Amino acid sequence: MRFLEPWESLARGNPFIRSEPAPGYDYMNFTWEDVPVTIWDARPIKEKFNVDEHGFAFFTDAENPQSGLVDILRNNNKAEIEGLYYPCIERLMTELTGAERVIIFDHTLRKRDPGRSKLDNPTGKEQPATMVHCDQSANGALRRLRQNIGPDESVNTLLKSRVQMFNIWRPLVDRVVDWPLALMDYHSLSLDDVHSTDLWKGEYELRGQTMSFTHNPNQKWWYLSDHQVNETTVIKIWDSDKKTSAKFCAHAAFEHPDTPLDAPPRESIEVRCIVIHEPTDPAANA
Fold it and tell me: Which family is it part of (predicted)?
């Protein structure tokens, strides 16, 4: 799997990636490091995993999307996806979390192009994401929250309730055997391996902040073999509740060594959302 190179933040500052770099500015200030890891099959114990204990969980979707909806998703029509699929995700996340409110702020479709090398991913949105990452740091999550609430709403007021961010990942092929999704058990992670990564544009226009990860042999990885269309992987990205066990989940696609040569290229959709719970005791999230 592909990790951030060994990194000393105190000496080198944050890793960064710069889109559309201005002349004389680096695209990135680090290199990726490919490390072989063992990835365990979660299928036999699929029900064991919990977003608050492990950072991820697997669910069979009660709505079981019909082929017509899958075809719409594969066609990547933004208006149809927002009108037909977003409500499914809102219902799913309300049921799974008991949230008072679900705000979906974007989605990404991916279809692996066998004609490209596994490192060739011009916009970061076509091929499976092979770098171990989490979509938001704490600072990045707060920035996202500000961007997606109403003009009369206050982040500080919302944070009196529990606020979470999740990615909901679903394959768009019958079963995934090509470049499946790997997820790290939060309890196997050392916080020394976590590095906030700045996303710049041009010179120094800050567009967000994610997290990259260095390798540690104690990390434990899982994937769901033969992931079906009617199954979703729910990935925790951020949680305002400081007492929860798993704060986030590192994840990445990986090249399975047993993938058949004739396996269909992986296709998937990932929806990103903010989940806001009912107000609680102010001391609960302190």
Answer: Belongs to the asaB hydroxylase/desaturase family.
Residue 229's domain comprises: 2-276
Helix H or strand E segment including 70: helix 67-75
Compute φ and ψ for 218, nearest 5 degrees.
-80, -10
User: How many domains does the chain divide into?
Assistant: 1
CATH number of the domain that residue 126 is part of: 2.60.120
What spatial distance separates the first Cα and last Cα of the chain, rounded to whole Å?
36
pLDDT in tens, 72-115: 899 999 999 999 999 999 999 999 999 999 999 999 999 987 76
Q: Of 285, 39, 55, 50, which is closest to residue 167 (Cα–Cα)? A: 55
Q: For residue 282, tell me if it sits in a domain.
A: no
DSSP β-ladder status, 221-223 and 181-184? antiparallel
- The answer as to whether 213 is a domain residue is yes
Number of Cβ within a 10 Å radius of residue 204: 11
Q: Are 128 and 112 in contact (CB under 8 A)?
A: yes
Contacts 24+ apart (CB under 8 A), 191-194: 192/216, 193/219
